[in-house]
Amino acid sequence: MSSKVDEKRITLIVSTIIILISVAYGIHSYVTRSASPIHYEVVQIDHKICSMPMVFVMNSTDKVEKVTANPVNYGLDIASKNEKILVCLGDYSDIVEVRSWMEGPIKIIIFGLKRGGSNTGIIINPKEDLEVYATLINESGEYLLPLIKVIDKQRIIDLRGKVNIEDVSYVKIYAFPVSIEFNETNIPSDDYLLKTVKIYNGTVWCRLDSKRIPIKTKISQIENQWLLVYAKPCKGGYVWFKIGESIGKSISFILSCEENG
């Protein structure tokens, strides 16, 4: 009698293991299944505009050689679908391989690059969720460099502004549960800092993924929080935006310290 019970237990255990393996394989197949190849175009750039791989988000009518006239459109790490993206390869213009796979609904693209060549770029016109990386191969080894993430436009907060303040090279972007006033002795805490953005010729362009902004208080939803664009603790040196009113929109601003501010 006991031998039959043991056989049933063994059969049940084996069946359970098989089911678990099948479920695990199914999950893995969903998370890391193969992807269709990425469509891209290799182009020659008239002027050297970068030494390391760098991303430029362009208008659909832009020509590659015009990118040099507007350096503020590089440094973005978020693009929306159907925007034209130029990846300037710089001194890593030897494309060794291109790999792609799916992680859930997101296509992962990795360009394997080696030193060699110059003034080469890659044009991508994404129509799906992407994360694009470069693997830089040189005498010191391999390095993974994140390039850009492509998401729905409705998730993006697009911040574009002018900064007319002397001796300021960067603006800082924060997320706060409430808006408050700042002065020389009361400055924003970096606990709330999202990113630091360089000013080019008095211009700033920054994008945020609204789904990746941390909620800093338990009682506040992301839509009820505030974005702070901060250059200097003077009147006019920073500006507040309600996050819920900024998602999916392009927001313009001007930072300029008012007299006696």
Using brief descriptors, characterize the structure shown.
261 residues; mainly beta; Immunoglobulin-like; 2 domains; five-stranded mixed beta sheet; four-stranded antiparallel beta sheet; 1 helix
3D structure, described in words:
The protein has 261 residues and is mainly beta. It has two domains: 40-151, no CATH class; 154-255, Immunoglobulin-like. 11% of the residues lie in helices and 41% in strands. The protein has one helix and 16 strands. It has one helix at 2-31; strands at residues 40-44, 54-58, 78-80, 84-88, 94-103, 106-114, 120-124, 130-138, 141-151, 156-163, 170-176, 193-198, 203-209, 226-230, 238-242, 250-255. The strands form four sheets. Strands 3-9-8-6-5 form a five-stranded mixed beta sheet, with no helix packed on it. Strands 1-7-4-2 form a four-stranded antiparallel beta sheet, with no helix packed on it. A hairpin with a 2-residue loop joins β8 and β9. The longest helix is centred in the first third of the chain and has 30 residues, at 2-31. The chain is globular and about 55 Å long. The chain starts with a helix and ends in a 6-residue tail after the last strand. Mean pLDDT is 82; it is low at 18-32.
